[in-house]
Amino acid sequence: MNQPITAAITAVGGYVPEDRLTNFDLEKMVDTNDEWIRTRTGISERRILKGEGKATSDLAVPAVLELCKKRGIQPTDIECLIVATVTPDMVFPATANIVCDKIGASNAWGFDLSAACSGFLFAVATGASFIESGRYKKVVVVGADKMSAIVDYTDRNTCILFGDGAGAILLEPNTEGYGVLDSLLKTDGSGRNYLHMKAGGSLKPASMETVTKREHFAYQEGQSVFKFAVKGMADVTAELLQRNHLTGDDIAWLAPHQANLRIIDATANRIGLPKEKVMININRYGNTTAATIPLCLWEWEKQLHKGDLVAMAAFGGGFTWGASLVKWAYDTK
Ligand code: UT7
User: Fold this and answer.
1) Which residue of 147, 162, 223 sits with most ligand 1 atoms within 8 Å of its CB, as the best mutation to test the pocket?
2) Which of the 8 DSSP states describes residue 215?
3) pLDDT per residue over 46-57, tens digit each?
4) The predicted structure's pLDDT at residue 333
5) What is the per-residue pLDDT across 30-48, written as a single tens digit (0 to 9) for each?
6) 185-243 residue pLDDT tens
7) Which residue is closest in CA terms to ligand 1's atom 47?
């Protein structure tokens, strides 16, 4: 009997810009301090994409090109490219189109997916379905955000949290059971009040007033989001393991969204995973929204082994949240 097709992750790429914004830099910009930021969030510094004319696609491009090089494929081999982002280069066209143009992926179609910090997981589930259907053989999923474009650097509640970056994975068909095994994804639009951008959409188009009132920046009621996030991310991860008859002992790695170290710890504790099995880079990159999880996979790639079960989990604006289970498909030489 033929084995069902699964979507295996066969290569990973990543990119973070050179420029660092440290807690000490932020101390000079707003009323905050290194100790508060580190103890409340786990962040020490973040990367910022600087330069005129630089956008989210410029973070995504090097990540996708690295992935192509590692896998030994050309951009023209890519059939579909999905970019998860809340900071598209423009409202339209999609950043996916711009990335494909910049890398010469002339045979690919693509689109952007907007699910904030859970965007990468939503895009992985979408891309995996394209592979599982048998219709596509090379789907690239990118998580990329230039958060510095929508962060108000006069608001200490948010400006300490976010950074810029991009990560990308290649999905290919597998008939030995490797790849995306299951995804449990959730949305609750009533959470939109706690984390959003007030203006710039069709509800409140840009005007002098929206600019003056600083409504084109990310707005977050941190404490409320924290309460939902800490429960949501832990619950959904536990539920995913349970429905796959797994416990934390079966999981080799947790690749969690990097919003707050306390939320990551709560998720790891909930499934009984020791800290050594948790990918954490929030200290160096902050919250890069859709890029956090693929950046973890990128940094930990060499430590991942064929057959490892990797749990990915996220919670973000929307509200959106979810977890995915992946059986890692390769060893890195
Ligand atoms: O990735 C998308 C999803 N987002 C998240 O998951 C983020 C969830 N939320 C959080 O991670 C946390 O709520 C924050 C890190 C944003 C804030 O931490 P908190 O422990 O919830 O702090 P808080 O907002 O309750 O503020 C505590 C105190 C307040 O002062 P008072 O009222 O106690 O005197 C704030 O004014 O800390 C003050 N504060 C700050 N102090 C120094 C708030 N921001 C700062 C700051 N530096 N940057």
Assistant:
1) 223
2) T
3) 999 999 999 999
4) 80
5) 999 999 999 999 999 999 9
6) 999 999 999 999 999 999 999 999 999 999 999 999 999 999 999 999 999 999 999 99
7) 32
Mutate which of 25, 35, 36, 40 for ligand 1? The one with the most ligand atoms within 8 Å of its CB, which is 40
Question: Residue 257 domain-assigned?
Answer: yes
CA of 123 to the centre of ligand 1 (A): 29
Indicate the residue among 148, 177, 206 that finishes a domain. 177
Residue 133 maps to which CATH number?
Answer: 3.40.47.10
Identify whether residues 57 and 121 lie together within a single domain.
yes
Contact 56, 180 (CB under 8 A): no
Is residue 333 domain-resident? no
Are residues 195 and 320 located together in one domain of the fold? yes
Domain boundary among 149, 177, 205: 177
Residue 219's SS3 state is strand
Distance CA 67, CA 301 (A): 12
Task: Give residue 233's domain range.
Answer: 181-327
Is residue 142 located within the same domain as residue 27? yes
What does the angle CA 293 – CA 294 – CA 298 come to, to the nearest 5 degrees? 120
Catalytic machinery residues: 117, 257, 287
List residues bridging with 322 in a β-sheet: 185, 314
Output the CA 287–ligand 1 centroid distance in Å: 14
**Residue 265 CB burial class (10 angstroms; 0-12, 13-18, ≥19):** middle
Give mean pLDDT, residues 99-125: 98
State the total domains in the chain: 2
Give residue 282 CA to ligand 1 midpoint distance, Å. 16
Q: Is the CB of 38 under 6 A from ligand 1?
A: no
